[in-house]
Each structure stands twice: as C-alpha cells, then as structure tokens.
Specification:
heterodimer, A: about 800 residues, alpha+beta, Phenylalanyl-tRNA Synthetase, Chain B, domain 1, OB fold (Dihydrolipoamide Acetyltransferase, E2P), 6 domains, 7-stranded mixed beta sheet, 6-stranded antiparallel beta sheet, about 25% helix, B: about 350 residues, BirA Bifunctional Protein, domain 2, 2 domains, two-stranded antiparallel ribbon, about 20% strand
C-alpha cells in the first residue's frame, strides 16, 4: 500500500519528517518497504509556456519552440512530441537539470538547431510508464491553466509527496486504506482525527425504478448499488490523476478513477458498470461450472461453480471482487453508471483470484477484510464525486440486496492480565489511555476492562489481541528485558544427541568436512546406493524434476558434491554428511520413516604432495580406516567385520564391502562404480554410508579401561603362503580361534607375491602378540599355541608356513 | 727429587696434558693413566712408607691435594668438551624452520551446523532441552495446530511441498511446538525447548531463496512467562552470537501462532546501525520472528491457556550465517564447494 503523506496531512496535523514517520510506523504497526520522495532525485524542472512553435528546418517531426520559463528571455527548445502546441503549459527541464533515471539535461544542438533544455513527458521525469494516463502516454504532459510559469513542477505532479510503501501483514487489512492508516497514525501520535460523513445529493428518480438486485448473504454479506445518470466520461482533473499515480494506480477516466480513489481512501473496492449494458437486473450468484466471461483485461476466463459472479438477466458481467467484465465496461459513451459497493466471502475471492492468477487491488482487500462501517459511505462519496467530475444526477436511494449486520466484538480483559503477559507495570489509567488513542470504547471497573472493538479493526477478538495493541502503542522499546524466573529446568543433550556430536567431531578429526546436500532429489538418485529395500516417497506437485523425490541415501548427494567440485577444478574432496533418509516399508505407507544416516565421499589426494613427502591418494583401505576409527570412537561394542558385497549397483563390485558389527549389517564402504564415475564425470571416488539409528542402538562399551599387564608380552611373527583367493579375514579367524586366551593382537605387516612365490599364491606375514595379565608367559606355552595355529592354517587353508 | 716435588711435577704435567686434549676418549685415557691403580699418584703414595714416619702425614695429605686438583681439572675439561660437542651437534642439526609444514588433515563442521551448535549450546546453558521432529510432517501439526486453519491467507506465505493431502514437507519447525506441548507434563516443570531442523518451501532457488533451509524453534511455557522475558532472552542470544555491541528492536508483525507477534531486528552488521545499502538505510536487519504463544495453539494441544502461557521464537541459521559472514547467495550452503566450506574454520569449542 503506497501511502501519500500529503493525503495523510489533509486529515492529521503531523509535522514529522517522512523518514521518521516511516520508522515510527515500522516500530508500531507494519513494516515499511520504502519512503520515496521522487523530487529528491530531480533538479531544475519547471513549468514553461510554449510561446511559439516552428517546424525544424531539417526534420519532418521536430519543432523549434520558444518557451517562457519565467526568465527574462524565452528559451529555444527543440521538441519532437506530436502533441506539442502553442500556448500549452508544459514540463521544461532546464539546462543543468536532472530528470528521471538520473539523466542530466544540457544545452545541446539537435540537427543543427540549439536546444536549451527539454520539454518532458511524465515518464521522462520519473513517473512509471504504467502509471501515465493514456492521454499523456505518447507525448508531453500539459498542465491545467492555473499552473504558474517558472514554478517547480513537483507540487503540481505530486512528485514532492513522500510516498510511504507499507508492507501490510495479513492481519492488518485495515491499513490497506488511507482511512485505516489515519486511525493508526492518530493512535500512534495521540492526535485527534475527525472524518466527515460524505454527503450525496439525490436529484434523480427512485433507484428501484432503474435497477434491482438480489444477493445470497453467504456469498455477499453486504451488496449495495447506487446509480448515477447522465454523466460525461472524460479524463479526470489533475488533482485526482496525481493522487492516483502517486498511490500507484493508473488514471483511466473520471468514473473508473473515482472508484479507485474510493478504494484507496476507504479500502472499499467499488465497481462501476455501464447501466446501459446491463440487461435487466443484477444477481450475485455462483458461476455455473464452465461458464465463461471476458474480463477487462480482454482475457476469456472459464469459471468454476465456486466462483462468485455478478450477473444480469442472462450473463455474468463481473467476477465478484476480482475483475469486471468487458461486456459492462465504462467507455467514452457511457452515460448511466451503476456503482457496486459490497463485501464478498473472502475465502471464495481468494481462491478465485489464486486460480485465475488475478490479484487485483480489489481482490487483495476483499481477501484481507472490509470495514462494514463504510460500505455505504464509500458508495455515497463515489456517487457525489462522479457527479462533481462528470455531471449528471444521483438516483434517490441505494439498492441493498444484502446488508448483514455485524455485531461489534466485546473483549473482557484486565490490567493484571495485560501486565502479567507483557511483564509491565501499567496502571489501569495508562491502559485506558491507550484504548482511547486507538478509538476503542472501554469500560473500566477497578482492574477489569470491557472493550468494544470498532468494525474497522476486524483483526481483534480476544484478550491476546488487546495485549498486542497495548504493547505496540506503549512501545516494544519500553518493554523491560528480563529472563524467565520461577521453576527451573535442566538443559542437557540426550545420550543420542551427544553421540551425534561425537560422530561429527570424530569425522572432522579424521579429516572430513561436513556437507549438507538436498533431501529432495531426482527420482533416480533417490534410490541409488540402497542399503535396504524401500518404497519411494515422491512429492505430489514438484516444482522441478531435480527435487521430486525424498532421498533414500546420502551417497548420491555427496557424489553430486564431488561432481560439482570436479567441475570447478577441485579434485581433492573429503566430505561427510549426517542427515535423514526416508524409507517406506510398503507402498501404502503414507508417511516414510526418517532414519539418520552418515555417509562420506573421498576422492583425489587425502594429503597433498609436499617438499619431503609424496601425496597420499585416497584408496579403499584409507576409507576403511576412517570407518574403523569412527566406529571405535563411538565406543560401540562388538567386532567390526567387512564382507565383500558386489550387489550394490552403483558401487564397484570388487571393491565394496558390507560393514558388520557383531554380525549386524550397519552399512557399506567401497568405491563408486566406474560407470557411475564416468556418468558423473568424476575421478575414482570412495565412500561409505552407515545407518546411524542402528549404530545408536548397538550396545556401547561400558568402560574402556583395562589395567595394563605388569608382565612382558611375547611377539612372534608368522608368514603364511596361501592361494590368492584366501582372505585376510579367513586367516585371522583361524589364528584368533586357535590363539588361546593369551593372544592379544594380530597385525598383518606384509603382503607379498613377488619372486619365490608361485603364481596364484601370496605370502601374508603377521605379527602375533601374546600376554598373560597374571604371570610371565613361558616359551613352551607360546610355542604350543603357535604350533596349533600353524597346523590349522596348513590343514584348513592349504597354507605353507614360511 | 723429593716425593713432594715429584707429586708437584705429576700434577703440573697432568694438568698440561688435560688442557691440551680435545677428545673425550683421550681425556678418559688421561684420567685412567693419572688416577688409575698403575698411575703415578698411586705409585707415589705407595712409596710414602719409605719416608720417615714424621714426614708421612704431610706428604700424604699433599698427595690427596694433588689428586683433587687433577680430578677437578679432568671434570672441568670434560664438561668443556661435552659442551663443545653438543654445540657442534646442534649446529649440524639446524633446519630451515620456514620450510612448509607437513600436511595434516582436519575437517570442519558446516557453517550452518556451527551456528546451530552455538545457538543450541547457549540455550542448553539456559536450561532448555533439545528436541527434533519429523521433516515429513502431518498437515495437522504443520498448520492446523499452529492456528492456520485451511483457507487461512497466511498459508499463502509459505508455499508447501505436499506428498498427499495430509502429509507434507514441513514448512517450519513450529510444528514442534504443538508436538511438545501435547506431550509435556507441566507438573514436572516448565517447558523450555529448542528445536533445530531442516524445513522446506515451494520456492525457486535463487540467491535469497532456497527450497530447503534450516530453522531453530524455541518455546518456553510456564505459569509466569512474560513478553519481557522474550525480549531478555533474545537480547542475551544476540549478545552471545553476534557480540555485545549488537542491539535488538522488536517490531509488530503477524504469525498465526503467536499474539502479540514481533519481528526482531539486530543492529546492521555492515554499518553498525549508521545506515547502509545492506540494511536499506534503516540501521537494522531482520533476523527472527517471535511472539507470545497464541491461546488457540495452547488449547488445541490440550494446555490450559488460562493457566499457562509463554513465548516462542524461530530463527534461520542460514540467514544468520549469511549475515554473520557476508555470504550473498544462500545456494552456496548446499553446493558443498570444498573451497567454500573450508573457509569457516571452527574456533575452539
């Protein structure tokens, strides 16, 4: 809502700079988007009179004008506007002036003829093209005769009027009008406000003889019509045009301009029909499904049976509250006008406007609410103003097809209640003074208040609403700042939240940076890297296919990240993400279960090349080491094992393993499938994905402390030659099974398949550590165990012990 | 030559030898030679018994004196030589300390995570618990129970990704208000909670809009919670997160689930309140929404609004991060460009 400060000042005695006023409005009522005084960016633009005009010697459309600008000598200005003529008073940008778009005008020559400035059209001095009336759209603007030669043009054109653009919240529809804003400002500044009732002279015949109307009060709780006959349609006088374009509305003609003027002033949308084009009487009804109407913007609209229309005897003539019909439009030949002033069902208007994408000044106000008190005033003033500007007479009376009485809400509250919520110590008198400023009628008895809310503040109905009124008028700046007192509560992270943090910190310590990618992805990516079976969850109306389904894995987002980095020439990436994935166990499940996963991707070099060491490229075993550390840092009980898995389609079949803890599968680790790498244009990329919910439910290590043995440990090395397909795990399983109680650790320290080893064979060298916590181990004990291990390795794996 | 003179000569020659050697091993050989069992002093002492009885004590004590002199000389020289050796070693071990460090890996938390952790920690300290809720939410919690009935115009303010008619991607963390209000037992104490999480809006991604972003919801309900408490809490948070120089102001606003509702502005980061393009010359930047919980929200969740009341607030960590670090494109938070992420080094804990 663009609020003209000049308009405000006609009613309220305010002497506050516009910027300060805006700040006050912002702190007390609604947000202010901007405060603009157009003349602030204009300079040296004055009223001039064209004394004489000759054709330019070298041009068929330029004129050489002598223009009186109130100086001793007239200025010679070359002008190309088609409508320039002698004796016109026009906008002159003097040499050295600044016009719209921050353009500077200098003395110049046009095709050899000196031009001392420029005669301007409205759009050239900063009035938006959309707001320039049709009659001035293709040429220069001509002042009414009372404009004084040599004056600055700004006040004539409203350019010196600070316009405060209010960003009105949905609850404050009352401020979408000058009247509503006046009441608000009167309350803020504690100023008296007098608004006169409009007077209309009804010189015509009784309206019932001209037109009748019927309206379903559920569609239109209030529906009124007045008729003005014998008007002349023509452009509005300058004062009205200026007021409209200042408020962001383009002037059309005197009849339409009056309706818009009233809309701005009262917040009451009006519609003017050409009475002559209405066949018979008016009915407010719902449209029949598929019925069509061509609206004022010349678009044909197909209607639904939930839309409200204004119809005559045989056709819709307007979409109620949204836009009028072309078939009943005011045109230059219109003489009789029917003015509609109504309140329509706000929800229906909103739905229609939304469906047709027709958000008009009118629909916006019907959606947010209309003041029941001024429906009649608005149509009265409109009728009177039409006659004033276009002649003719107003019919006697108003047609009231519906006129629902709305009872004023009465709210009971008390000073103690208000103070208890706000944390203030306001006296009952101070509170009542605020109600008075707001123009709310309040009855005070002791602590208690009975407050009657005027119709113009339909947003207020409960005590909490009054708390807000008191708080904002009293001033949020004046509220004390305290902290909650009374009963205390303990603030602590839950065990799970602590583990989440431990997980994140652990991964960061291991060199991975946290990523956050999108949960909504393509249907295809949503189901890559699956760790379990699940049905997919899709949005019903996605905006793009890129974000159409809920992810069931984190890997695909991270692989996207790798691709993004690669495309930006970053080839070393180590990222992890902790986030939710969405699973459905059956197709009918409406709400997916949300499972916390943690995943990581690594590609390129883990550590860079340095002057004294080589780069360390990422490989399977590095990522596996990160997984090992992560699980160990989380203090999870149970042995971690890795089992080769070639079934995840998007992972390398020979370089991927399931991760099991105590035999329970918790995720996978491996290399992204080369064909996926190719598809995403990325280098070799490794990663893992773990189900954090599962990890969180696994038994935790109670205490990680074990006393250090006082007795020396014994270490024995063993080299085992086996066939290539024998895994490390197979060997370690046998060693640990046969290693007895004193075997403390098995460490693989070499894998060799070079010289002296037959093809298809490899040598694996392990270092075994034995320790008895209670006694010194004897050589014989260790030897005995060692022999047992050798025997089983030989028997079970055809191993040769070297 | 008398024995005494002999001893004097041994000392003088010995000290001469000691002072001339530069080698620790040689010094040791000298020590063995002079003081050993076969050394001249031992030999000299043995011949004491050949002296007249009355001379013996004098010579004996002189011999001991000589031995002490030699021992001291040896020790001093040894220290000297060891010091010199160490010095030579240190000299040879000198490195160019300006050569680059060896690479050590260290990851970083995401900048938004850092902000969330910071806010969460602050409120933990003030006795809040941390609760998280579903991202795929029932319409009932996301809208209805937040006092946004069907056809409420404010639903337009947050266009929604629907999955079915009743299930949607939550547009705000506010449904956690309804969820916790339903469950909380007020006999056990006040409800003080903070709920960080991801929310979704049906928006086209551009520098200032993202279809996915974060929110942190806060809620305090008890018998005597005031709007002044809300103001104090927000002042505390602002000082903690942004610094003591930052001030706040409350402005009236509208949220269906709070009454009164306020927007909270913080002193502009760019100009510290003087007015600049970033703050549209107001000196203030909007950072969060808040208000006193609407009685309908309490009543719908089964909490008696006549007895209990309090405040709620919601803030956007994405916006906080943008303001705090001057990030001008919200999409940067979700592209995971390593060069972007690694700039936000977490300082201490």
């Amino acid at each position: 809502m663009k609020l003209s400060y000049k308009w405000v000042k006609e009613y309220l005695d305010l002497n506050i700079p516009a910027k300060d006023l805006a700040e006050k409005i912002e702190r007390t009522a609604v947000e202010v988007d901007s405060v603009v005084t157009p003349s602030d960016s204009l300079k040296k633009i004055v009223v001039g009179k064209v004394l004489s005009m000759e054709n330019h010697p070298d041009s068929d459309h330029l004129h050489v004008c002598q223009v009186d600008v109130g100086e001793e000598e007239p200025l010679q200005i070359v002008c190309g506007a088609p409508n320039v003529a002698e004796d016109q008073k026009v906008i002159v940008a003097l040499p050295g002036s600044r016009i719209g778009g921050n353009v500077k005008i200098k003395r110049s020559k046009m095709r050899g003829v000196v031009s001392n400035g420029m005669i301007c059209g409205l759009d050239e001095i900063g009035i938006s093209k959309d707001l320039v009336p049709k009659e001035w759209a293709d040429g220069i603007y001509v002042f009414e005769d009372d404009a004084k030669i040599g004056d600055d043009v700004y006040s004539y054109l409203g350019l010196d009027d600070p316009v405060i653009d209010l960003d009105v919240t949905p609850n404050r529809g009352d401020m979408l009008s000058v009247m509503g804003s006046l009441h608000e400002l009167a309350a803020i500044y504690d100023k008296p406000l007098t608004i006169e009732q409009p007077k209309v002279e009804e010189a015509g015949s009784a309206i019932e003889n001209d037109i009748q109307a019927e309206a379903d009060p559920t569609l239109a709780p209030v529906y009124k019509l007045r008729v003005v006959k014998g008007v002349t349609v023509k452009p509005s006088p300058a004062w009205l045009q200026v007021r409209l374009w200042t408020s962001g509305i383009r002037p059309i003609n005197n009849i339409v301009d009056v309706t818009n003027y009233i809309l701005l002033k009262y917040g009451q949308p009006l519609h003017a029909f050409d009475r002559g084009k209405i066949n018979g009487n008016i009915k407010v009804r719902t449209a029949t499904e598929g019925e069509t109407i061509v609206t004022l913007d010349e678009e044909e609209r197909e209607l639904k049976d939930t839309d409200i229309v204004i119809a005559d005897n045989d056709k819709p003539i307007a979409i109620a509250g949204v836009m009028g019909g072309l078939n009943s439009e005011i045109d230059d030949d219109t003489t009789d006008v029917a003015i509609e002033s109504a309140i329509f069902d706000s929800i229906k208007i909103r739905k229609t406007a939304r469906r047709l994408v027709l958000h008009s000044e009118a629909s916006q106000r019907f959606e947010r609410g209309i003041n029941y008190d001024t429906v009649q005033d608005a149509v009265d003033e409109a009728a009177a103003l039409m006659v004033e500007l276009g002649g003719g007479t107003v019919d006697k009376g108003t047609v009231s097809a519906s006129d629902t009485e709305r009872e004023l809400p009465v709210v009971n509250t008390s000073s103690s209640r208000i103070n208890k919520v706000l944390g203030t110590n306001l006296t009952s008198d101070e509170i009542q003074a605020i109600f008075n400023r707001l123009g709310f009628d309040s009855k005070q008895s002791g602590d208690e208040f009975v407050v009657t809310i005027p119709a113009r503040r339909w947003d207020i109905s409960i005590p909490a609403d009054l708390n807000e009124e008191i708080a904002r008028i009293y001033g949020y700046d004046n509220l004390p700042a305290t902290l909650p007192t009374g009963r205390t509560a303990v603030g602590a992270l839950t065990a799970r939240q602590k583990r989440e943090r431990a997980l994140r910190h652990s991964l960061e310590g291991l060199g991975l940076t946290q990523a956050i990618s999108y949960s909504l992805t393509t249907a295809e990516k949503a189901k890559m890297y699956m760790t379990r079976d699940s049905f997919e969850t899709k949005l019903s109306f996605p905006m793009t296919q890129d974000h159409a389904a809920l992810r069931m894995n984190l890997m695909s987002g991270l692989v996207d990240d790798v691709a993004y980095n690669k495309a930006h020439k970053v080839s070393d990436v180590a990222l992890y993400e902790f986030g939710r994935v969405f699973f459905k166990d059956d197709a009918d499940q409406v709400r997916p279960s949300e499972v916390a996963h943690v995943a990581a991707v690594l590609t390129g070099n883990f550590t860079d090349r340095n002057w004294d060491q080589k780069a360390k490229p990422v490989d399977f075993y590095l990522v596996k080491g990160i997984v090992d550390h992560l699980i160990s840092n989380l203090g999870i009980l149970g042995q971690v094992t890795y089992v080769a898995n070639s079934d995840i389609k998007e992972m390398h079949p020979g370089r991927t393993a399931d991760i099991l803890i105590g035999g329970k599968k918790v995720g996978f680790v491996g290399q992204v499938h080369p064909k996926i790498q190719k598809q995403f244009k990325i280098n070799d990329t490794y990663g893992f994905e773990l189900d954090f919910d599962l990890l969180d439910h696994l038994p935790q290590v109670e205490s990680q402390y074990q006393s250090i043995s006082k007795y020396p440990a014994v270490t024995r090395d063993i080299a085992v030659e086996v066939n290539d397909e024998v895994t490390n795990t197979a060997i370690e399983d046998i060693i640990s099974k046969r290693g007895g109680a004193y075997l403390k650790s098995i460490e693989l320290f070499d894998v060799y398949n070079g010289d002296n080893i037959a093809d298809g064979r490899k040598s694996m060298a392990y270092s075994l550590t034995f320790n008895n916590p209670n006694d010194t181990l004897k050589d014989e004990e260790v030897n005995e165990t060692f022999e047992k291990i050798k025997k089983h390795l030989t028997d079970e794996l055809s191993a040769e012990i070297r | 030559m008398s024995l005494k003179d002999e001893l004097t000569q041994i000392r003088d020659e010995g000290l001469e030898q000691i002072s001339h050697t530069d080698d620790l091993k040689e010094l040791n050989d000298i020590r063995v030679h002079l003081l050993g069992k076969k050394g001249p002093i031992t030999t000299a002492l043995r011949s004491i018994k050949e002296l007249p009885v009355e001379e013996r004590p004098g010579v004996g004590s002189y011999a001991n004196e000589i031995r002490d002199d030699l021992t001291n000389g040896l020790t001093a020289r040894k220290e000297q030589l060891e010091d010199a050796k160490l010095e030579a070693q240190l000299e040879s071990e000198q490195i160019d300390v300006t050569l680059p460090a060896a690479p050590v890996v260290q990851g970083q938390p995401h900048v938004i995570q850092q902000i969330i952790d910071e806010v969460v920690d602050l409120f933990l300290g003030m006795g809040y618990q941390v609760l998280t809720g579903p991202e795929v939410e029932e319409e009932k919690y996301n809208f209805e129970m937040m006092n946004l009935p069907k056809d409420h115009p404010a639903r337009d303010m947050q266009d929604t990704f629907y999955i079915t008619n009743d299930i949607l991607m939550r547009t705000q963390t506010s449904p956690m208000q309804a969820r916790t209000l339903e469950k909380h037992n007020f006999e056990e104490g006040p409800l003080k909670m903070i709920s960080p999480g991801i929310v979704y809006r049906r928006d086209t991604d551009d520098p200032t809009h993202s279809h996915q972003f974060h929110q942190i919801e806060g809620l305090v309900i008890d018998k005597n919670i005031t709007m002044a408490d809300l103001k104090g809490t927000l002042v505390t948070m602002t000082h903690e997160i942004f610094g003591d120089k930052f001030d706040i102001r409350l402005r009236p606003s509208f949220f269906p689930f709070t009454e009164p509702s306020v927007e909270v502005d913080v002193t502009c980061f760019n100009c510290m309140g003087k007015g600049c393009d970033v703050c549209k010359h107001t000196g203030w930047i909007e950072v969060l929404g808040a208000g006193m919980v609407h009685p309908n929200v309490l009543n719908m969740a089964g909490v008696d609004s006549e007895t209990y009341g309090g405040f709620a607030f919601g803030l956007g960590p994405d916006r906080f991060a943008m303001l705090k670090y001057g990030v001008d494109d919200i999409r940067d938070f979700y592209l995971d460009d390593v060069r972007f992420l690694n700039q936000f080094v977490k300082r201490g804990i």
